[in-house]
Design goal:
single chain, 257 residues, alpha/beta, Rossmann fold, 8-stranded mixed beta sheet, two-stranded parallel sheet
Length: 257
C-alpha cells in the first residue's frame, strides 16, 4: 500500500501538466472555419512566445464593447468559439486567447506566464476600448486567470462560469489523500483575487457539475460583495450551462446596457 501511494504521488507530481492541461496544437498556417465574422491575430510577446488570438467581431456602428474570454483546459479556441454568439448577438466583440501550447500559441507554460499573457491581452483591448467597455470572462480553468486580471485592472464586469476556490482544491477532490497544495505548480487562488476586484462579479455554476463541484465554487460566496451574485443552475453540469435559459437570459440582461 505504501509503495502504491508513493508511486501514484510521484506520477501526480511529475505528470501534473498532462493531468491539468489538455491542449491541441494547430499549425501556424491552419485556417479557421468559424461561422461568424472574425479576425486572427498573432501577438509576438517575446522571441520565443507567441499568442494566438481570435477576435469575433461586430459592426463598429453597434459595438458596445469587448468580452475578453479566457477558456478552459481543453483543446483550443475552436472548442469554445461556438459560445461567442452569446455575446456578439448582444453587440459585444469576443476576443479569445489560446494559452501556451494551445492552438497557435507557443512558449513555455507557467502560472505567472498565464497572468502575464492575460495582461498583454488586456492591454491590446485597452488600445481600442475604454475600461468600462471591457468585460472579463472566465470559463473553468480560465476563471482563475480572469479573476487575477480583474484584480489588477479595471473592467465593467467580471463573469465566471464554473469557477473554483483554488486549483489545489479541485485536484484534491480527485486525490484526497495527497498533500496536493504542496505538490502542484499551479495554485490559481481565485478566492484571493475576487476580494480585490472592484467591478461587479457574476458567477454561474451548475448543481450537477462533476468536474468542479458546486460545493467547491460555493466557497466563494462569503467573499462576494453586495453588488455581486452567485447564480446556481439547477441540474447544470460543467459544459452545458448555455443550454439553460436561466444562464443565457441573465447574460443577455448583463449585456443589455
Amino acid at each position: 500500500m505504501v509503495i502504491i501511494y508513493v508511486v501514484i504521488g510521484l506520477l501526480l507530481y511529475f505528470f501534473q501538466e498532462k493531468i491539468i492541461f489538455h491542449p491541441q496544437k494547430l499549425a501556424f498556417d491552419h485556417k479557421y472555419n468559424f461561422s461568424i465574422p472574425y479576425k486572427e491575430i498573432n501577438l509576438r510577446v517575446t522571441d520565443s512566445r507567441n499568442l494566438g488570438i481570435v477576435q469575433f467581431t461586430v459592426p463598429d456602428s453597434v459595438c458596445k464593447g469587448v468580452v475578453l474570454y479566457f477558456h478552459g483546459n481543453m483543446r483550443n479556441i475552436e472548442r469554445y468559439a461556438p459560445h461567442a454568439t452569446q455575446f456578439t448577438r448582444n453587440n459585444y466583440e469576443v476576443w479569445m486567447m489560446d494559452y501556451p501550447g494551445y492552438g497557435k500559441s507557443t512558449g513555455e507554460r507557467s502560472e505567472q506566464g498565464l497572468y502575464d499573457d492575460a495582461l498583454e491581452f488586456y492591454k491590446m483591448a485597452r488600445a481600442r476600448f475604454p475600461k468600462d467597455s471591457i468585460i472579463i470572462y472566465g470559463k473553468s480553468m480560465g476563471t482563475g486567470i480572469a479573476a487575477q486580471l480583474a484584480s489588477i485592472r479595471d473592467c465593467k464586469r467580471l463573469i465566471l462560469e464554473t469557477p473554483y476556490y483554488d486549483f489545489p482544491s479541485v485536484i484534491q477532490h480527485y486525490f484526497p489523500i495527497y498533500p496536493v497544495s504542496l505538490m502542484l505548480h499551479y495554485q490559481l487562488p481565485t478566492h484571493e483575487y475576487i476580494e480585490m476586484v472592484k467591478a461587479p462579479i457574476t458567477i454561474f455554476h451548475g448543481t450537477d457539475d462533476g468536474v468542479i463541484t458546486s460545493s467547491n465554487a460555493k466557497r466563494l460566496i462569503p467573499l462576494l460583495g453586495k453588488k455581486d451574485e452567485f447564480i446556481s443552475i439547477k441540474k447544470g453540469s460543467h459544459n452545458d450551462l448555455y443550454e439553460f435559459p436561466q444562464c443565457t437570459k441573465k447574460i443577455d440582461s448583463l449585456l443589455s446596457f
